Amino acid sequence: MRVLQLIDSLHAGGAERVAVNLANGLSTKIDKSFLCATRQEGHLKESISSQVGYLFLNKTKTIDFRAIQKLKAFIKEEKIEIIHAHSSSFFLATIIKIIYPKLVLVWHDHYGKSEYLDKRPTFVLKWCSKLFNHVFVVNSKLESWSKEMLDCKSVSYLPNFAVANNKASLTKLKGEAGKRVICLANFRAQKDHINLLKAFNMVWKTNTGWTLHLVGHDFKDEYALDIKNFIKDNALEKHVFIYGSCTDISHILNQSDIGVLSSKSEGLPLSLLEYGLAGLATITTNVGDCYKVVSKDAEGLLIPSNNTDALVNALLKYINNKNLRLESGRCLKAKVNTSFSEPSILNSILETYKKHQI
Q1: Residues of the chain with CATH 3.40.50.2000
Q2: Residue 3 CB partners (closer than 8 Å, separation 6+)
Q3: What pLDDT, on the 0 to 100 scale, is given for residue 166?
Q4: What is the CATH number that goes with domain 2-161+341-356?
Q5: pLDDT digits (tens, 9 = 90+) for 167-189
């Protein structure tokens, strides 16, 4: 079995990390595992195993004949049998499927705005889905939506999984050890950093020494500017720190004490699983399939989205009780290791691949 993971970029986002994790994980289980970045490279390139075949297309437009030809030649030369396309890379994968009809085409839907599926564009996706052999989705809402809206009858829920990151320990978090709150999320509006900043601004004044650390890609857009302006306007520069994209996630989480996701919408966020893998006390909004990870109070605190008071209370609950933090982190780590482990997810993927091979 020879499988290519197809992803638009290698920036440190959830879908991108899943694509790299799959390529790496499958490299010891199949004849040959490959990964292709279509549009941009990024920090995650450093995380690709030496056992994984790699291709960068530098695709610059929707229909880029040079990129299509390059990918076509690579697939032929490497005798690739299965394309596992992630997120918006499905369009290029569909073109290749038309050229090589015997290819198995699997689409992995990481759509993070599962609370707003009624606003999702569908025309091109629905047409392309006629050529999909299978669709993986990352939460139950997407599963129902795909079965209703797409022209692919083979659809299954596939939870994300987290793996320990062994990259060199480069990032040293600022602030006092034992009093750090981490938010691992790219600067996108759906992640609602502003609500987290509002809550933290109410918390730190009576809990001196606690600091908030924001790790994620800065798109340098209006939303990122809003985050920076809030920090400046509220004189939080000595209490809130921005790091941008980082590759040494495990090292960063090992320096942290509370993990927070304040999102308005999610699929099944990889960062939530990474908090669990690191044994962090975790607070997350009840969006997407977050409730499947934090399913009871012992595993973490599940709160309503866009609710500053609820987030303040959750932060205070953990800040004021170190034993509760430690026990909650242990419970969530056990849950992630049991229910969201790499071996079980890879086995499910392999079974699906085999089912659709000609």
Answers
A1: 2-161+341-356, 180-339
A2: 26, 30, 32, 33, 34, 80, 81, 82, 83, 84, 353
A3: 67
A4: 3.40.50.2000
A5: 677 899 999 999 999 999 999 99
